[in-house]
Each structure stands twice: as C-alpha cells, then as structure tokens.
Amino acid sequence: MKITKEILQETQQRIKPFVHRTPIMSSQLINEIAGVEIYFKCENFQKMGAFKMRGATNAILQLSETEREFGVATHSSGNFAQALALAAKLQGIKAYVVMPSNAPEIKKTAVKGYGGDVIECIPTLEARETTLNDIVNKTGAIFLHPYNDYQVIEGQGTAAMELIEEHDDLDAIFTPVGGGGLLAGTAMAAHHFSPKTKVIAGEPMGADDAWQSLQKGEIVPQTNPQTIADGLLTSLGDKTFPIIKEHVEEIIRVEEKEIIAAMRLIWERMKLIVEPSSAVALAALLKEKKKYKGQKIGIILSGGNVELSKLPF
C-alpha cells in the first residue's frame, strides 16, 4: 500500500477532534551545546502522554459499526496499550490489552484507568501473541498492531506534519526508532510535505535491530534487547521496514550513558518530563553534531510516561 499525501491530509482531519496539537519548544542552551537550531515537537504533552494516541485514534475511527461492537485488542508493554485504551474509551468501545507481567506498573494502572481490560502474560513475544489470539478468538475483538499497520503509521505521521506546518525549512527531523511506526510516519510526512527535509533516527546500541536491518537490507529480528529506553524494544515490521529503507537517511546508534545525559539535559534545561525513549533522538543528534552544525533540526519527543521512582539520574 502507498501512503499518499491525500491519505495523510485526510488522517490529520479525521483525528483532529480527538488529539492535541502539541506545542513546539526550543532551548537556547541546548542549541548552543548542539551547535544547531532545534525545534522539539512535544508529544509528551499528547493525550495519554505519547504520540501513539494519534495512530490508535486513526485506526479506531476507521472501524465499521459491526467491528466497533466487538471492541479492539492489542499487545503492548506500554504506550500503545494506553493509547488504545483511551482512544477506545473516547469512542465508547471496549479495549483488551495483553501486557507482559514485567511492564511498568504505572503503565498497567494507566490502561485500567482508561477503562481497558489488562490481561497479563509472561514477558515473551510468543506469549503475548498466543494470549492475544485467545482473546481475539473469545471476544471477536479486532486486533490493532501497535506499529505494523498502515492506519497507525499514518496517524503517527501527523506529528511531523504539524511540525512541518510551523517550520517548513527544517534540514532534518530526528525521531527514536523501536517498531518503526513513528519513524515511518515521519518519513512519509517529510517525503510529501517537505521533501528537502531528511529523516534520521536514533536507536539504542543495546537494541539496534533497525540499524542492523538497514545494513543488511532485510528485517533482522530484535533479540534480547538491553536498554533503558523501554519503548524501543520491538523489531521492525514488514510494513514499517520498506518505508524506512526507502525514505530514512540514516540510523544513529547511541550508548546508554548518552541516552541518560540527553534525558537529563531535557529535564534540567527545558523542565520537560520525557521518558528515556524520547531522549534517544536528541542523543543521536548530539553524537553527530559536527555533521549537522548550523542546521535547523526538528526532534520529535515521543512521550513522557516515565516511572518517577526509577529515574536514571
């Protein structure tokens, strides 16, 4: 399937009543440290605290009346779980969310708070998928994939569209990459609305399957990821990877200490609560700052759902 300019424009109009147009902020001090002009798109201020609200809303709004009656289901360790539960609640439909037993308590509580049914399973992808299949078979709920779904990708692309509407002269946009929904959506938004803008991703060194996949030209599955950036533990999907392969300039890998330093910088200098995954994009830019010196850069701060009792600093 091709994600066209028209599809993205329709998506933006469709979800507009249900999501926030998040602010764009900058920091003189961080600009000086980086040697570039940065515009942070603050999706930590999105409903439920992350960009995922956009994709979940777009997918739910396109269900038929019959499908709505059975509800929706997904498996997610965090932000998509919350996004789906809230988006479903706003549309008056049921959401079933399979979560690994080791998912942060704060995220499980949030899903329940949004009216979602949480079904816990052992923390393996196989268990998540098996449990999800059981739920779908039992309830007839429609499975919505957290990122490997065109309607979800289109929804995620609207964050970059808003950024480009306000700053149409960006040299590059940086995002983090996990499953690739945000990165693929951003790449399509830039491709259609600001073709001169390059799209670059940051990825933790301890979970660098997307980087490996680009090197190899095929999906390299994630195995035993080790990173503080708990939102970036998934592998690319067969819908996100081809878009990334074609439209993303590069993926920059960052060390854990670089992620923590970037996260601390955003907290201290901008007074913004962001989760570690959000800081990965800034960490990538700081790592390669010589290359981007003097440029105008957009950074999508993907979310702010952090467990305050487990801050890394």
Automatic annotation (TrEMBL):
Keywords: Pyridoxal phosphate. Its cofactor is pyridoxal 5'-phosphate. Residues 16-303 form the Tryptophan synthase beta chain-like PALP domain. Coiled coil: none annotated. Pfam families: PALP. InterPro entries: TrpB-like_PALP (IPR001926), TrpB-like_PALP_sf (IPR036052). This is Pyridoxal-phosphate dependent enzyme.
